[in-house]
Amino acid sequence: MQSKQLPKDFLWGGAVAAHQIEGGWDADGKGMSIADVMTAGANGLARDITEGVMADKYYPNHEAIDFYHRYKEDIQLFKELGLKAFRTSINWTRIFPKGDETEPNEAGLQFYDDLFDELIAANIEPVITLSHFEIPYHLYQVYGGFRNKKLIDFFVHYAETVMTRYKDKVKYWMTFNEINNQADGQHDLHVWTNSAIRFTEGENKEELIYQAGLNELIASAKVVKLGHQINPDFQIGCMMAYVPIYPYSANPDDQMAALKTMHRRFYYSDIHARGAIPAYILKEWERKGYHIDYSQAELTALKEGTVDYIGFSYYMSGTVTTIDNLAGHPSNDYPNTKMLGNPFVKASDWGWQIDPVGLRYTLNLIYERYNLPLFIVENGFGAYDKVEADGQIKDDYRIAYLKAHIEAMKASVLEDGVDLMGYTPWGIIDIVSFGTGEMEKRYGMIHVDKDNQGNGTLKRTKKQSFDWYQQVIATNGQTL
Ligand code: P53
C-alpha cells in the first residue's frame, strides 16, 4: 500500500547560523570572524566588509539576538513548538580564535557542550554546520582565505576537534554552508563569506573561485572520511543553495543556457556526492586556460569522502534566456545568457521569486541526480512583520509561503518517492539577515524585539505562525 504519511522519524525542525543569532562576538575568548567585520546594509544595499572592526561602524552580528546568553529560554520555546531538530553552526572562532592554533579554546567548547545538552534534554536533535560564514578573520589576514591550501588543514583540525568532542551528542553534520553561493565569483559578499577571500586588482575572479571552491571540497571530503572514523553512526552531508534555473522559453538555446547555468552550481554537489571533478568543468578549465592546482592525493581524498546526504536551502527559482530583445542581467554561462524575472511567479519584498513547485522540481532533480537522502535545511519567507497594538503578529503571508512549500515537499515524498530526512525552516526565531544585515527582514515564528539600527528589548514573542507550525509538527504534516 502506498504510504500517505511522511516517515514517523521525519526531522521537523528549525534552522539558524551561529553568527546570525549568538552575538557575544568577543565573549569568553572568541576570536574575530569574517562575519564580525560586516556592516549593516539595507534592502537593495550591500553590506560593507571593513578591514578589522572600526569604532564608528555598526556591526549587527556583534550582538545579534544574544542567543549566546539566552539560549536556555529560547530552547524552551523550541520545545513548546515541538521541534525535533535544531540546525545551527559552531562558530569556528569560539573554538580556534585565530584558526591556526594547535590547542582549542576550552570556554568555546564548553559553550557548545552546554547548548547541545540543553537541546538533547528538550528532545531536540542538533544538526550542525561546521562552517556557516564564520571563518576566522586571522585566516584571511595572514593566509588570504581559502585561496591558500593551508586552510584545508586548519579546517580539518577544527572539524576533528569538535567532532571528537561532541561525538556522542551530535549525529547530523554538514561541512560548508551553501558552498555554491560563490559560484560565479562575482558577488564580493558571497566570496567573502564562503571563502574569506578579497580580490586583488587584476585577479581572475572566476579562476580563483574555482580554486578556493576545490580547496573547500577537498577539506570537506577529508572531514567526511575522518568523521566516519570518529563515529561510524555520523551522518555527514554537504550544504547547497539550490535555486533552480528555468529556461525562459521553449527556444532550445534557452534550454541549453539553463543547463549550463545549473552546471556551474552542480559542480559543487557533483564533487561532494560523486567524488570526482565533472567532465564539463574540466573542459571549461581547459577552454579558458585555467590552472587549478590539485594533486593525485587530493583526487583520492575527494573519492574517499563522499557525503551521506545532500542538505540544501531552497527559497526561490530563477529564469534565463538567450532571446536578444529581452532585457536581463548578463550571465557568463552560455553565449548571450541573461537572467530575468519569471512572469508566472510573484516575488517577496526583497525580489526573491516565490515558487513552491520549484521545490518539488528541485527535490526530484537532485534525487534523480545523486540517489542520496535529501534534507531541506533552509526554506522560508523573509518579510516585514507588524506588531499590532495588542502585541500580536499576524504573519499569515509566512504561513501561506510555508504551507505551499510543505505541500510541494509532501508531494515529492508521497507521490514522487523522494527520500527526504527532514525540513528545518530558516530563521525559526528572528535573526540578522545574512545578505543585508537587517533585523527587519524576518523569517521567524518567534519575534525578537530589535530593529535595523540595533534598538529594542530583545523580547521574544510568538507569532501566529508559531501556533500553526506547532500543529504541523504535532500531526506530522497532516494539518497544514
Ligand atoms: P537572507 C541567496 C540565495 C539563497 C540563500 O538569506 C542565501 C542567499 C544569500 O543571500 O543565503 C542563505 O538572510 C544563507 C543564510 C541566510 C538565508 O539564506 O539574506 O544560508 O545564512 O540568512 C536567507 O535573507
From TrEMBL:
Keywords: Glycosidase, Hydrolase. Belongs to the glycosyl hydrolase 1 family. InterPro entries: GH (IPR017853), GH_1_N_CS (IPR033132), Glyco_hydro_1 (IPR001360), Glyco_hydro_1_AS (IPR018120). It holds the Pfam family Glyco_hydro_1. GO terms for molecular function: 6-phospho-beta-glucosidase activity. The keyword Hydrolase applies. The active site is at E378. This is 6-phospho-beta-glucosidase. Its EC number is 3.2.1.86. It comes from the Bacteria. It is an enzyme of class 3 (hydrolase). NCBIfam families: PRK09589.1 (NF007154), PRK15014.1 (NF011589).
